[in-house]
From TrEMBL:
<keyword id="KW-0175">Coiled coil</keyword>
<comment type="function">
    <text>Essential cell division protein. May link together the upstream cell division proteins, which are predominantly cytoplasmic, with the downstream cell division proteins, which are predominantly periplasmic.</text>
</comment>
<dbReference type="InterPro" id="IPR023081">
    <property type="entry name" value="Cell_div_FtsB"/>
</dbReference>
<keyword id="KW-0812">Transmembrane</keyword>
<keyword id="KW-0997">Cell inner membrane</keyword>
<comment type="similarity">
    <text>Belongs to the FtsB family.</text>
</comment>
<dbReference type="GO" id="GO:0030428">
    <property type="term" value="C:cell septum"/>
</dbReference>
<dbReference type="GO" id="GO:0043093">
    <property type="term" value="P:FtsZ-dependent cytokinesis"/>
</dbReference>
<keyword id="KW-0132">Cell division</keyword>
<feature type="topological domain" description="Periplasmic">
    <location>
        <begin position="23"/>
        <end position="96"/>
    </location>
</feature>
<dbReference type="GO" id="GO:0005886">
    <property type="term" value="C:plasma membrane"/>
</dbReference>
<keyword id="KW-1133">Transmembrane helix</keyword>
<protein>
    <recommendedName>
        <fullName>Cell division protein FtsB</fullName>
    </recommendedName>
</protein>
<keyword id="KW-0131">Cell cycle</keyword>
<dbReference type="InterPro" id="IPR007060">
    <property type="entry name" value="FtsL/DivIC"/>
</dbReference>
<keyword id="KW-0472">Membrane</keyword>
<dbReference type="GO" id="GO:0032153">
    <property type="term" value="C:cell division site"/>
</dbReference>
Amino acid sequence: MYRWLLLILLVMLAGLQYRLWLGEANLRQVWQLEQQIQEQQQLNQQLIERNKRLEAEVRNLKQGFAALEERARSEMGMIREGESFFQLIEPEPETP
């Protein structure tokens, strides 16, 4: 009687171990999913930081004319009224 009970419990334990290690949604897959979650959370954090920087830049451009003027000067080559623009051209090296 006890042998049958012990045998049944061992078979059940083996079945549970099979599902745990080799069955659907096994531990290896759970570990891989946890790793993917961590990687995605790191990527999300980087994107959140980038978005904060972009929001600050947009806010600065909307409110501050200094940032707008700086961007117009550096990216578009614009100058103020009454200023003179000088462009220095490097001489090309002489080739023998």
